[in-house]
Amino acid sequence: MTSEFAVEMRDVVKRFVTPEGHEIAAVDHVTMQIKNGEFFSMLGSSGCGKTTSLRMIAGFEWPSEGEVFIEGRPMGHTPPFQRKVNTVFQSYALFQHMTVYQNVAFGLEMEGADKSEIDKRVKRALEMVQLTGMERRRPRQLSGGQQQRVAVARALVKTPDVLLLDEPLGALDLKLRKEMQLELKALQQQLGITFIYVTHDQEEALTMSDRIAVMSKGRVQQLATPVEIYERPVNKFVADFIGESNFFEGRIKSISKDEAVAHIPALNTELKGLPMSRDFVKGEDVAISVRPEKIRIVENKTKGDGLFMAKVLTSVYIGSDTHVYLDLEGIRLKIMEQNRISRLDPSSFYSKDQVVTLMFMPENTLILKKD
Ligand SMILES: Nc1ncnc2c1ncn2[C@@H]1O[C@H](COP(=O)(O)OP(=O)(O)OP(=O)(O)O)[C@@H](O)[C@H]1O
Ligand SMILES: [Mg+2]
Questions:
Q1: Handedness of CA 5, 36, 90, 44 (dihedral sign)
Q2: What is the pLDDT of residue 173?
Q3: Measured by CB atoms within 10 angstroms of the end CB, which terminus of the chain is less buried, N or C?
Q4: pLDDT grade, residue 277 (50/70/90)?
Protein backbone atom coordinates (compact mmCIF):
# COMPACT_ATOMS: atom_id res chain seq x y z
CA MET A 1 0.00 0.00 0.00
CA THR A 2 1.21 3.43 -0.88
CA SER A 3 -0.16 5.42 2.03
CA GLU A 4 -0.47 5.11 5.78
CA PHE A 5 -4.08 6.19 5.39
CA ALA A 6 -6.72 4.10 3.69
CA VAL A 7 -8.97 7.12 3.32
CA GLU A 8 -8.55 10.77 4.01
CA MET A 9 -11.07 13.61 3.88
CA ARG A 10 -9.23 16.89 3.71
CA ASP A 11 -11.23 20.01 4.52
CA VAL A 12 -14.27 18.66 2.71
CA VAL A 13 -17.42 20.74 2.28
CA LYS A 14 -20.61 19.51 0.64
CA ARG A 15 -23.33 22.02 -0.09
CA PHE A 16 -26.82 21.18 -1.24
CA VAL A 17 -29.56 23.44 -2.44
CA THR A 18 -32.73 22.04 -0.93
CA PRO A 19 -36.01 21.94 -2.89
CA GLU A 20 -37.13 24.73 -0.56
CA GLY A 21 -34.35 26.84 -2.07
CA HIS A 22 -32.01 27.00 0.94
CA GLU A 23 -28.33 26.28 0.63
CA ILE A 24 -27.06 24.01 3.38
CA ALA A 25 -23.61 22.66 4.19
CA ALA A 26 -24.40 19.00 4.91
CA VAL A 27 -20.67 18.48 5.48
CA ASP A 28 -18.81 21.51 6.72
CA HIS A 29 -14.98 21.49 6.58
CA VAL A 30 -14.49 17.89 7.63
CA THR A 31 -10.97 16.52 7.93
CA MET A 32 -10.33 12.93 8.94
CA GLN A 33 -7.63 10.40 8.32
CA ILE A 34 -8.62 6.76 8.47
CA LYS A 35 -5.76 4.33 8.95
CA ASN A 36 -5.28 1.06 7.10
CA GLY A 37 -6.99 -1.81 8.90
CA GLU A 38 -8.86 0.47 11.24
CA PHE A 39 -12.45 0.12 12.42
CA PHE A 40 -13.48 3.74 12.14
CA SER A 41 -16.94 5.09 13.00
CA MET A 42 -18.79 8.27 12.23
CA LEU A 43 -21.24 8.89 15.03
CA GLY A 44 -23.90 11.58 15.23
CA SER A 45 -27.60 12.25 15.31
CA SER A 46 -29.88 12.24 12.28
CA GLY A 47 -28.94 14.78 9.61
CA CYS A 48 -25.39 15.49 10.86
CA GLY A 49 -23.81 14.53 7.53
CA LYS A 50 -22.74 10.91 8.02
CA THR A 51 -24.28 9.41 4.88
CA THR A 52 -23.17 12.39 2.79
CA SER A 53 -19.56 11.88 3.99
CA LEU A 54 -19.72 8.19 3.17
CA ARG A 55 -21.20 8.87 -0.27
CA MET A 56 -18.32 11.22 -1.05
CA ILE A 57 -15.80 8.55 -0.05
CA ALA A 58 -17.65 6.03 -2.23
CA GLY A 59 -17.82 8.46 -5.16
CA PHE A 60 -21.61 8.79 -5.38
CA GLU A 61 -21.25 12.43 -4.47
CA TRP A 62 -18.43 14.91 -5.11
CA PRO A 63 -17.18 17.50 -2.62
CA SER A 64 -18.08 21.16 -3.19
CA GLU A 65 -14.70 21.98 -1.64
CA GLY A 66 -11.75 19.98 -0.36
CA GLU A 67 -10.64 16.53 -1.46
CA VAL A 68 -11.12 12.84 -0.71
CA PHE A 69 -7.99 10.67 -0.91
CA ILE A 70 -7.97 6.90 -1.12
CA GLU A 71 -4.61 5.29 -0.42
CA GLY A 72 -3.02 8.68 -0.76
CA ARG A 73 -4.45 9.43 -4.20
CA PRO A 74 -6.81 12.36 -4.74
CA MET A 75 -10.10 11.00 -6.05
CA GLY A 76 -11.39 14.07 -7.87
CA HIS A 77 -14.30 12.87 -9.98
CA THR A 78 -13.25 9.20 -10.02
CA PRO A 79 -16.47 7.15 -10.39
CA PRO A 80 -17.47 4.66 -7.66
CA PHE A 81 -16.53 1.51 -9.56
CA GLN A 82 -12.94 2.71 -9.95
CA ARG A 83 -12.48 3.18 -6.20
CA LYS A 84 -11.24 0.29 -4.05
CA VAL A 85 -14.16 0.76 -1.68
CA ASN A 86 -17.51 -0.96 -1.41
CA THR A 87 -20.66 0.10 0.36
CA VAL A 88 -23.27 -1.60 2.51
CA PHE A 89 -26.16 0.84 2.28
CA GLN A 90 -28.49 2.14 4.98
CA SER A 91 -31.25 -0.02 3.46
CA TYR A 92 -29.68 -3.29 2.35
CA ALA A 93 -31.14 -2.92 -1.14
CA LEU A 94 -31.08 -6.65 -1.87
CA PHE A 95 -32.65 -7.86 -5.10
CA GLN A 96 -35.83 -9.52 -3.89
CA HIS A 97 -36.34 -11.69 -6.98
CA MET A 98 -32.83 -13.14 -6.80
CA THR A 99 -31.47 -15.86 -4.54
CA VAL A 100 -28.80 -15.23 -1.94
CA TYR A 101 -26.22 -16.66 -4.33
CA GLN A 102 -27.36 -14.45 -7.20
CA ASN A 103 -27.39 -11.35 -5.01
CA VAL A 104 -23.80 -11.94 -3.95
CA ALA A 105 -22.65 -12.95 -7.45
CA PHE A 106 -24.29 -9.99 -9.19
CA GLY A 107 -21.41 -7.50 -8.91
CA LEU A 108 -18.87 -10.01 -10.17
CA GLU A 109 -21.06 -10.96 -13.11
CA MET A 110 -21.33 -7.29 -14.06
CA GLU A 111 -17.54 -7.19 -14.11
CA GLY A 112 -17.53 -10.18 -16.44
CA ALA A 113 -15.58 -12.51 -14.14
CA ASP A 114 -15.61 -16.14 -15.27
CA LYS A 115 -18.04 -18.60 -13.77
CA SER A 116 -15.66 -20.71 -11.72
CA GLU A 117 -13.98 -17.61 -10.28
CA ILE A 118 -17.39 -16.20 -9.35
CA ASP A 119 -18.41 -19.47 -7.73
CA LYS A 120 -15.25 -19.62 -5.65
CA ARG A 121 -15.56 -16.05 -4.43
CA VAL A 122 -19.30 -16.19 -3.69
CA LYS A 123 -18.83 -19.35 -1.63
CA ARG A 124 -15.97 -17.78 0.27
CA ALA A 125 -17.97 -14.59 0.97
CA LEU A 126 -20.99 -16.57 2.19
CA GLU A 127 -18.71 -18.63 4.40
CA MET A 128 -17.32 -15.44 5.96
CA VAL A 129 -20.77 -14.26 7.00
CA GLN A 130 -21.87 -17.77 7.99
CA LEU A 131 -24.57 -18.20 5.37
CA THR A 132 -23.29 -21.38 3.77
CA GLY A 133 -26.28 -23.59 2.94
CA MET A 134 -28.66 -20.68 2.32
CA GLU A 135 -27.53 -19.98 -1.26
CA ARG A 136 -30.91 -20.78 -2.80
CA ARG A 137 -33.11 -18.75 -0.52
CA ARG A 138 -34.56 -15.40 -1.50
CA PRO A 139 -34.25 -12.37 0.80
CA ARG A 140 -37.82 -12.68 2.12
CA GLN A 141 -37.04 -16.21 3.29
CA LEU A 142 -34.33 -14.87 5.60
CA SER A 143 -34.39 -13.15 8.98
CA GLY A 144 -33.36 -9.50 9.24
CA GLY A 145 -29.92 -10.47 10.51
CA GLN A 146 -29.41 -12.95 7.68
CA GLN A 147 -30.43 -10.36 5.08
CA GLN A 148 -27.96 -7.99 6.62
CA ARG A 149 -25.25 -10.63 6.22
CA VAL A 150 -26.13 -11.07 2.54
CA ALA A 151 -25.60 -7.33 2.13
CA VAL A 152 -22.18 -7.62 3.80
CA ALA A 153 -21.25 -10.67 1.68
CA ARG A 154 -22.25 -8.81 -1.46
CA ALA A 155 -19.86 -6.00 -0.54
CA LEU A 156 -17.04 -8.34 0.57
CA VAL A 157 -17.13 -10.50 -2.54
CA LYS A 158 -15.38 -7.77 -4.50
CA THR A 159 -12.50 -7.83 -1.99
CA PRO A 160 -12.46 -4.10 -1.34
CA ASP A 161 -9.63 -2.56 0.69
CA VAL A 162 -12.22 -0.44 2.43
CA LEU A 163 -15.77 -1.36 3.37
CA LEU A 164 -18.21 1.47 3.97
CA LEU A 165 -21.17 0.53 6.14
CA ASP A 166 -24.09 2.92 6.57
CA GLU A 167 -26.11 1.97 9.69
CA PRO A 168 -26.12 -1.67 8.58
CA LEU A 169 -27.74 -2.88 11.80
CA GLY A 170 -30.42 -0.19 12.05
CA ALA A 171 -33.30 -2.48 11.16
CA LEU A 172 -32.45 -5.20 13.67
CA ASP A 173 -33.81 -5.68 17.17
CA LEU A 174 -31.51 -4.92 20.07
CA LYS A 175 -30.39 -8.45 20.86
CA LEU A 176 -29.58 -9.36 17.27
CA ARG A 177 -27.90 -6.00 16.78
CA LYS A 178 -25.56 -6.70 19.68
CA GLU A 179 -24.69 -10.14 18.30
CA MET A 180 -24.06 -8.72 14.82
CA GLN A 181 -21.88 -5.94 16.29
CA LEU A 182 -19.51 -8.54 17.70
CA GLU A 183 -19.66 -10.63 14.51
CA LEU A 184 -18.87 -7.69 12.24
CA LYS A 185 -16.04 -6.61 14.50
CA ALA A 186 -14.60 -10.15 14.48
CA LEU A 187 -14.95 -10.31 10.69
CA GLN A 188 -13.15 -7.00 10.29
CA GLN A 189 -10.28 -8.16 12.51
CA GLN A 190 -10.04 -11.47 10.69
CA LEU A 191 -9.98 -9.87 7.22
CA GLY A 192 -7.80 -6.95 8.27
CA ILE A 193 -9.60 -4.55 5.93
CA THR A 194 -10.60 -1.02 6.80
CA PHE A 195 -14.18 -0.50 7.94
CA ILE A 196 -15.78 2.92 7.90
CA TYR A 197 -18.95 2.51 9.86
CA VAL A 198 -21.80 4.97 10.23
CA THR A 199 -24.15 4.88 13.21
CA HIS A 200 -26.20 7.13 15.42
CA ASP A 201 -25.99 4.60 18.26
CA GLN A 202 -23.26 5.66 20.68
CA GLU A 203 -23.04 2.30 22.42
CA GLU A 204 -22.57 0.61 19.06
CA ALA A 205 -19.77 3.01 18.16
CA LEU A 206 -18.06 2.52 21.53
CA THR A 207 -18.33 -1.28 21.25
CA MET A 208 -16.95 -1.69 17.77
CA SER A 209 -14.58 1.13 16.92
CA ASP A 210 -10.85 1.69 17.11
CA ARG A 211 -11.59 5.40 16.65
CA ILE A 212 -14.73 7.48 16.40
CA ALA A 213 -15.51 10.81 14.77
CA VAL A 214 -18.33 12.43 16.73
CA MET A 215 -20.23 14.66 14.31
CA SER A 216 -22.77 17.41 14.70
CA LYS A 217 -24.23 19.74 12.07
CA GLY A 218 -21.78 18.68 9.40
CA ARG A 219 -18.71 19.13 11.59
CA VAL A 220 -16.41 16.79 13.47
CA GLN A 221 -16.62 17.63 17.16
CA GLN A 222 -14.04 15.09 18.33
CA LEU A 223 -12.02 12.36 16.66
CA ALA A 224 -10.47 9.92 19.13
CA THR A 225 -10.57 6.44 20.64
CA PRO A 226 -13.72 5.34 22.51
CA VAL A 227 -11.95 5.67 25.87
CA GLU A 228 -10.73 9.20 25.13
CA ILE A 229 -14.15 10.27 23.91
CA TYR A 230 -15.90 8.96 27.01
CA GLU A 231 -13.28 9.94 29.58
CA ARG A 232 -12.01 13.15 28.00
CA PRO A 233 -14.75 14.70 25.86
CA VAL A 234 -13.48 17.95 24.33
CA ASN A 235 -16.64 19.94 24.85
CA LYS A 236 -20.06 19.97 26.42
CA PHE A 237 -21.73 18.66 23.27
CA VAL A 238 -19.63 15.49 23.24
CA ALA A 239 -19.95 14.93 27.01
CA ASP A 240 -23.71 15.23 26.66
CA PHE A 241 -24.05 13.15 23.50
CA ILE A 242 -21.85 10.23 24.62
CA GLY A 243 -23.14 8.64 27.80
CA GLU A 244 -24.64 10.78 30.53
CA SER A 245 -23.19 13.73 32.41
CA ASN A 246 -24.00 16.07 35.25
CA PHE A 247 -23.12 19.65 34.36
CA PHE A 248 -22.32 22.74 36.43
CA GLU A 249 -21.50 26.22 35.29
CA GLY A 250 -18.09 27.30 36.46
CA ARG A 251 -15.25 29.73 36.00
CA ILE A 252 -11.52 29.03 35.99
CA LYS A 253 -9.98 30.62 39.04
CA SER A 254 -6.37 29.59 38.60
CA ILE A 255 -4.24 27.33 36.46
CA SER A 256 -1.00 25.58 37.28
CA LYS A 257 0.71 23.34 34.74
CA ASP A 258 -1.96 20.70 34.04
CA GLU A 259 -4.33 21.36 36.94
CA ALA A 260 -6.92 24.01 37.59
CA VAL A 261 -9.09 25.43 40.34
CA ALA A 262 -12.65 26.19 39.26
CA HIS A 263 -15.22 28.27 41.08
CA ILE A 264 -18.80 26.99 40.95
CA PRO A 265 -21.13 29.84 41.87
CA ALA A 266 -24.22 27.66 42.34
CA LEU A 267 -22.42 25.57 44.96
CA ASN A 268 -20.58 28.55 46.37
CA THR A 269 -17.42 26.50 46.28
CA GLU A 270 -14.16 25.80 44.53
CA LEU A 271 -13.06 22.48 43.08
CA LYS A 272 -9.30 21.97 43.16
CA GLY A 273 -6.84 19.78 41.26
CA LEU A 274 -9.03 19.36 38.18
CA PRO A 275 -7.20 17.86 35.20
CA MET A 276 -6.74 20.18 32.26
CA SER A 277 -6.38 18.68 28.84
CA ARG A 278 -7.02 21.80 26.76
CA ASP A 279 -5.93 25.37 26.61
CA PHE A 280 -8.16 27.33 28.93
CA VAL A 281 -7.50 30.78 30.32
CA LYS A 282 -7.93 32.19 33.79
CA GLY A 283 -11.36 33.76 34.21
CA GLU A 284 -12.90 31.69 31.42
CA ASP A 285 -16.50 30.53 31.81
CA VAL A 286 -16.59 26.76 31.43
CA ALA A 287 -18.82 23.73 31.86
CA ILE A 288 -17.88 21.32 34.62
CA SER A 289 -18.95 17.77 33.98
CA VAL A 290 -19.09 14.60 36.10
CA ARG A 291 -20.39 11.23 34.91
CA PRO A 292 -23.16 9.64 37.03
CA GLU A 293 -21.08 6.57 37.87
CA LYS A 294 -18.16 8.72 39.00
CA ILE A 295 -19.82 10.52 41.91
CA ARG A 296 -19.78 8.50 45.12
CA ILE A 297 -22.24 8.54 47.97
CA VAL A 298 -20.13 8.20 51.12
CA GLU A 299 -20.75 7.56 54.81
CA ASN A 300 -18.86 10.63 55.98
CA LYS A 301 -21.34 13.27 57.17
CA THR A 302 -19.08 16.33 57.12
CA LYS A 303 -18.51 18.88 54.41
CA GLY A 304 -15.00 19.30 53.11
CA ASP A 305 -12.95 19.45 49.91
CA GLY A 306 -14.96 17.69 47.25
CA LEU A 307 -17.68 16.67 49.73
CA PHE A 308 -21.24 17.96 49.42
CA MET A 309 -24.54 17.34 51.18
CA ALA A 310 -27.42 16.55 48.84
CA LYS A 311 -31.03 15.47 49.21
CA VAL A 312 -32.42 12.35 47.53
CA LEU A 313 -35.28 13.08 45.11
CA THR A 314 -35.89 9.53 43.89
CA SER A 315 -34.03 6.28 43.76
CA VAL A 316 -34.73 3.85 40.92
CA TYR A 317 -33.74 0.19 41.17
CA ILE A 318 -32.98 -1.29 37.74
CA GLY A 319 -31.47 -4.63 38.73
CA SER A 320 -27.78 -4.28 37.97
CA ASP A 321 -27.69 -0.65 39.14
CA THR A 322 -29.55 1.86 41.22
CA HIS A 323 -30.05 5.33 39.74
CA VAL A 324 -30.27 8.01 42.40
CA TYR A 325 -31.57 11.47 41.53
CA LEU A 326 -30.53 14.18 43.98
CA ASP A 327 -30.91 17.85 44.64
CA LEU A 328 -27.63 19.64 45.26
CA GLU A 329 -28.23 23.32 45.99
CA GLY A 330 -31.07 23.40 43.47
CA ILE A 331 -29.14 21.45 40.82
CA ARG A 332 -30.53 18.07 39.83
CA LEU A 333 -27.90 15.34 39.74
CA LYS A 334 -27.94 11.73 38.66
CA ILE A 335 -25.75 9.11 40.27
CA MET A 336 -25.45 5.46 39.28
CA GLU A 337 -24.40 2.88 41.81
CA GLN A 338 -23.74 -0.76 40.96
CA ASN A 339 -25.65 -3.23 43.11
CA ARG A 340 -22.65 -5.29 44.09
CA ILE A 341 -24.33 -6.85 47.10
CA SER A 342 -27.57 -8.79 46.87
CA ARG A 343 -30.08 -7.42 49.36
CA LEU A 344 -33.83 -7.19 49.79
CA ASP A 345 -34.23 -5.04 52.91
CA PRO A 346 -36.08 -1.85 51.79
CA SER A 347 -34.21 0.21 54.40
CA SER A 348 -30.93 -0.51 52.63
CA PHE A 349 -32.06 1.66 49.68
CA TYR A 350 -32.08 5.44 49.50
CA SER A 351 -35.37 7.09 50.42
CA LYS A 352 -36.91 10.36 49.34
CA ASP A 353 -35.61 13.41 51.24
CA GLN A 354 -32.74 11.45 52.77
CA VAL A 355 -29.65 13.63 53.11
CA VAL A 356 -26.46 12.03 51.84
CA THR A 357 -22.84 13.09 51.36
CA LEU A 358 -21.45 13.14 47.84
CA MET A 359 -17.80 12.83 46.98
CA PHE A 360 -16.41 14.35 43.78
CA MET A 361 -12.95 13.13 42.90
CA PRO A 362 -10.91 15.73 41.01
CA GLU A 363 -9.69 13.24 38.41
CA ASN A 364 -13.32 12.50 37.47
CA THR A 365 -14.36 16.12 37.29
CA LEU A 366 -13.79 17.60 33.86
CA ILE A 367 -13.45 21.16 32.70
CA LEU A 368 -15.03 21.59 29.28
CA LYS A 369 -15.47 24.26 26.67
CA LYS A 370 -19.04 25.45 26.86
CA ASP A 371 -19.73 24.60 23.21
N1 LIG B 1 -29.40 15.45 -2.09
C2 LIG B 1 -29.66 16.28 -1.09
N3 LIG B 1 -30.22 17.48 -1.33
C4 LIG B 1 -30.47 18.36 -0.33
N5 LIG B 1 -30.19 18.12 0.97
C6 LIG B 1 -29.61 16.95 1.28
C7 LIG B 1 -29.33 15.96 0.27
N8 LIG B 1 -28.76 14.90 0.89
C9 LIG B 1 -28.71 15.18 2.19
N10 LIG B 1 -29.21 16.42 2.44
C11 LIG B 1 -29.27 17.09 3.75
O12 LIG B 1 -27.96 17.08 4.28
C13 LIG B 1 -27.98 16.85 5.68
C14 LIG B 1 -27.13 15.64 6.02
O15 LIG B 1 -27.75 14.48 5.50
P16 LIG B 1 -27.15 13.02 5.71
O17 LIG B 1 -27.98 12.08 4.93
O18 LIG B 1 -25.69 13.04 5.42
O19 LIG B 1 -27.39 12.81 7.27
P20 LIG B 1 -27.11 11.53 8.19
O21 LIG B 1 -26.13 11.97 9.23
O22 LIG B 1 -26.74 10.36 7.37
O23 LIG B 1 -28.51 11.31 8.90
P24 LIG B 1 -29.33 9.94 9.28
O25 LIG B 1 -28.74 9.45 10.59
O26 LIG B 1 -30.73 10.39 9.42
O27 LIG B 1 -29.14 8.95 8.17
C28 LIG B 1 -29.44 16.73 6.07
O29 LIG B 1 -29.88 17.97 6.55
C30 LIG B 1 -30.14 16.36 4.77
O31 LIG B 1 -31.46 16.82 4.75
MG1 LIG C 1 -27.70 8.53 6.93
A1: negative
A2: 80
A3: C
A4: low
- Which among 48, 202, 215, 220 is the best mutation to test ligand 1's pocket, defined by most ligand atoms within 8 Å of the CB? 48
Dihedral angle, C-alpha 144, 145, 149, 151, nearest 10 °: 30
Same domain for 252 and 193 = no
Residue where a domain terminates, one of 236, 270, 289: 236
Least confident of 5-14, 272-281, 296-305: 296-305
Minimum-distance ligand to the CA of 42? 1
Q: Which atom of ligand 1 is nearest to the CA of 52?
A: 18
Q: Is 49 close to ligand 1, i.e. is its CB under 6 Å away?
A: yes
**Burial tier of 124 (Cβ tally within 10 Å: 0-12, 13-18, 19+):** middle
- Flag whether pLDDT at 300 surpasses 80: no
* Whole-number pLDDT of residue 342: 83
Q: Which atom of ligand 1 is nearest to the CA of 45?
A: 25
Domain co-membership, 295 together with 329: yes
Domain that holds residue 271: 244-368
